[in-house]
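Backbone description:
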Amino acid sequence: MINQVMFLYHDHHTTTHRGSNKTSHKLINKYYWPNMHVAINEYIKACEKCTRYNYIRTKRLGKMNIIPTPNKVMNLLAVKINSAQEAADFFLDVCYHCGAPSKLITDQGSHFVAELTRAIIESCNTTHILATPHHPTSNAQTERFNTTFAPALSKLTSDQTLDWDEFLQHVIYAYNTSKHTTTSLTPIQIMFTRENQLIMDPKKMKISLMKPNEYYEKAKQSRVLFFNHVKLNIKHLHQLVKTRHDKNRPDPKYVKGDLVLVRVIIRTSKFQEKFEGPYRITNQIGSATFIVKIENLDNDENTNYTKQVTTADMKHIFSFEVV
C-alpha cells in the first residue's frame, strides 16, 4: 500500500518527482503510517530517476585533503608539439639538473602515457602517477600554479598571443622572486636560503666574500630556520582553510563492491541525465580515488569497461524497502 501511495505522489507524471518536503506536504493531511517522514525520505533517496537527473545543491562532496604547498622554484619549458620525445627529453633534463624524482604526477595525455615516456620514467625508478580525468585537484599543485602563471603571461603577450614563449622565463623569474602568501618567503629564499638580487635593484657598492667553510655552516643554519618557519606557516594556514572548507560539507564513504552512479562530465542536452551507471567499485587507489567497472545487466557490450573517478563525482545507489 505504501509503495502504491508513494508512486502516485512522487513518480506519477502529474507529480514529476518532487523533493521530500513537497511530497510530504501533499501526503501529510491525507495518509498516515508509522515513521512516515523517514519512509518518504528513504523512498525519494532510492528513486533512480531523481538520483540520475537531479542537480546536487549541497557543497561539493568530500572533505579537504591537504596537499603540499607549491614552495619550490618553478621551471617551465615551451615546446612546439606535445610529443613523447619532448616529454621524455624534459624529464631527463630535470633528472640531469636535480636528480631523478621519486614520483611524477601528470595528466593522462598521450605524450605522458606513450611507451617511450613510460620507459624513460621507469628506467629512472620513478613512480608515475596519472591524475584522474576532469579532476584537477588530483594534480592540485600544478593547477594552482597555472592560475597564477596563465594570467601573468597573458598580460605580457600581444593580441595574437603567438609570442607567449618569449615571455615564459620572465614570468617564471617574477614568480620565483615573489613572496608566497602561505610560506611568507620567496621560492628562491627557500631553495637557496638567501635573498635574490633583482635585475632592477641598484648595484651594491660594497660586497663581502665568505670563506667556503663559513658559508656552508651559515647555509645549514639558515636552511633549518627557513624550513621551520615555512612549516609553521603552512600548517597554520592549512588548518584554517580545511576548517572553512569542511564545515557543513557532506563526506560519503565508499568501499570496494559498492554500487554507484558516476557524474556525466560532458552532456549534450540539458535533459540528459547528470549521473550514469550503475558502476561497481573494484579498487581504491587513493583516499578519494576509485576504479569502477560498468555494471550493465541489460547489455552485454562493454562489460569490461572501467574508469577512474573520485568521490566528488559519485553517488550511492540506495534501495527502498517497506518495513
